[in-house]
Every structure is written in C-alpha cells, then in structure tokens.
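Holo prediction. Input below; ligand is flavin-adenine dinucleotide.
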Amino acid sequence: MNSSRHFDFIIAGAGAAGLSLIWNFLSADELKEKSILLADRVLKPVRDKTWCFWDDKQHKFGDLIFHSWESLEVRALGAIFSEKLNDYRYHCVKSDDYAEKILEIARKSPNVTLLETDIQEFGYEDGRAVMRSSEGLFTAGHIFQSALRPPGFQKLKLDVSLLQHFTGWHIHTNEPVFDPAKATFMDFDVPQGNGVTFVYVLPFNRHEALVEYTLFSEELITDEEYEIGLKNYIDERLGLSSGQYAITYTEKGVIPMEDRRYPAQYCRRVWNVGTMGGLTKPSTGYTFTRIQQHSAEITRALVQGAQPSSRAMSPYRFRVYDMMLLYNLHRHPDTSIRIFHDLFLKNRFDRILQFLEEKTRFHQELKIMSSVPWLPFFRAIYKMKHRIFTGA
Ligand SMILES: Cc1cc2nc3c(=O)[nH]c(=O)nc-3n(C[C@H](O)[C@H](O)[C@H](O)COP(=O)(O)OP(=O)(O)OC[C@H]3O[C@@H](n4cnc5c(N)ncnc54)[C@H](O)[C@@H]3O)c2cc1C
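Structure of the complex:
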C-alpha cells in the first residue's frame, strides 16, 4: 500500500455506489492526478446481487449488461398486461461482473490505492476528513462513504418504514420454457398475506431464469416461507415440478423502503452515497440508476472545483408521490394491488417507467394519478399531511 495516509479522496465502501464513483473519477481527465483510496472489507468480485434497471438502448454499460429485455409483463387481479417497450430496455448487471471490471480499472490506475479494512468511523479534524479503520487512521480532502449509517440516523423523521425483502433462485430447466425477450416485472397473482407479495421472473435464455419471491412488509419471513413461495410459483405458474429444474444460484436481499430523509453528509467533508445516502427510491426500492446519476453529479462538481450538492435526490412532488404510495403499501396492501392493476391497465409501460424514473412532467403525472383510484391517495395526503406540508 501507498505509505501516505492522506489522499485527495477516500471512497469508503466498494459496492454499487463506491465502484460507480471511482469509475466516474477515473474517467474524468481533470481528476487523473488526484490520489484516491478505495476501502472495503473485501475488494474482490462477489456474485450477491443482480441489479436491474431501465435505460435507453444506448446505455453506457457496454459489455457489463448480462441481459436486456424488450418486453415486460405485469399480472394483477387476474389480468395480464404485456407490452413491448419503445423508449426503454430493461437491463440487468451482475454484481461480480461490475466489480471485476471496475476493480481492474482501479488496480491499473497509478493514482489509486486499494485497502481491505474494517471501516469504523468518520470524522473531521483540522480541515480534513478522517476515516478510522482496523488498518488505522486515513485522511482526505473529501470522503465518500457507503459503509456506515450516518450519525443521528435513528432520530430522523420517519412515518413509514417498510422492507423490500426477497429470495431468488436462478434455475436451469430441462425443457426450453422461457422467452428471453420478455421479463415478468411484477406478478401479484400469488397468495397475499404477509404484506404486498409478488414474483418477478428474469429469463436469460430458453432454459435459465432468475425467479424472485418478493414482499413489501415490516417483518422478514422465514427461509422456509420464501422457499415455499418459490416452489409453488415455479410449479403453478411455470408448470415445472421439482425434478424438471435445478437451482444454480440463490440471491437474497433486504432493501429499505422508507420516508426518512437521509442526510447528504455524515459530517463535514464526508458525503453519504448509495443506500447510506438515501438513494433508494422509497416506493420501489430501485437504487442502481440513482447511484449512477449521483456519481456523475459528484464527479461534475469536483471537476468544476465545487462541493458536491446537498440537495435531495428527488424533487418535492416526487417525494410526495413516494410518501403516498408508501403509505398505501404499508397500510392498505389490497388497495395497493388495485392501484398497480389500474396503473398498468390505463398507462403505457414506457410512461410508467418514465414516471418511476422521475422524468415525467407535471401534466403527465396528473394523467397518471387520474388513472388510479383517488380515495387512497386523498387518505394518504390526510394521514401524511404533517410531512407533506412541511417539505416531505
Ligand atoms: C440482493 C439485492 C438486489 C438488488 N437489486 C436491485 C436492482 O435490481 N435494482 C436496483 O435499482 N437496486 C437493487 N438493489 C438495491 C441497491 O441497488 C443495492 O443495495 C446496491 O448494492 C446499493 O449500493 P451501495 O453501494 O449503497 O451498497 P452496497 O452495494 O451494499 O456496498 C456497500 C459496501 O460497503 C462495504 N462495507 C459495509 N460496511 C463496511 C465496513 N464497516 N467496513 C468496510 N466495508 C464495509 C460492503 O462490503 C459493501 O461492499 C438490490 C439490493 C440487494 C441487497
């Protein structure tokens, strides 16, 4: 390791956010001379996440895309909505491919130092950002951290806190049963009971798919319950008994879905990024695209010699929409499925994705709102008025 313990930048945490950030830094000519420390417990590729997101056909991920789908399907209340996308493609990237590519670029960069360490704390001393770790103390002009919860996290205003939790099986089937051009985005026609429950299916070829059993609820369920949910789905929806497929990989995850406003900074000169920066969209759990946007924004600011921005990721009106949907997902799961049903019944998939990506205009949002039951949203406004009318 570089013997210096001071760097221009420390990137603390090398998951989706930390790696995206270093990739952006190393792509910016203006930052080529900056010394960077990349720190994580483990700095090697691990296959533990499959990140899905939508983007146009000219996405910037090149050969990192493991698979893309041009059509999506949603099932709710007995109806099937299936559509070919015009403006978008639904893509997925495997976490090990992403880490392998970006870590290799980092290793080849003379200005980057990699450090495997247990990060313990951040602080600000004598005009410098400080990282304390099992390998000792390191300082920097700025630290970007995705490893630790910001101080005071538990005291932040919070009305709805749900978990999106799931177990997925990557299965290989004996017979060719999948259509690799079409992903099941959400299938709500599964037994409900522990919270809003759905399955999504990502087929990679005729024989292979990732099938994920997902819930939005306050409590996790047992491993056995996920397993039963997956087995029943594969049996009943895909028509495959246990002898007709093999499980080649299991993915588990928990993503926070909450209306807490995460602070932009941990302390002076230490910036929160990724999930710790509150980049997870509260009503959907999607984070990957927002991480990429945030990294690009931070890089642009540093290139211009400016401070990274402290503004919230989402504009006010989208925070309000998120709060209203989150409230319904929490308090009225049955109504939420009706909302999804009407949303996909009355709007094009491209428009819904554009809305979820927060790229719609207000008049388009009014049209979307008028396509779903109003009462639950008025009720949510009433129940959440103390938040909505104080800046959300
Ligand atoms: C299984 C799974 C699937 C997901 N799928 C999607 C998806 O399809 N689409 C989407 O948009 N979002 C998805 N998400 C949500 C989100 O995109 C991911 O959680 C994403 O990885 C968040 O990035 P991050 O950098 O904030 O956190 P992480 O990727 O978890 O990175 C944090 C890093 O910090 C390191 N670290 C933590 N604590 C310490 C410490 N004390 N010392 C040293 N290192 C430490 C960890 O080792 C890790 O490498 C998924 C989440 C999970 C869990």
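The two ends are 45 Å apart (CA to CA). That is the main takeaway for now.
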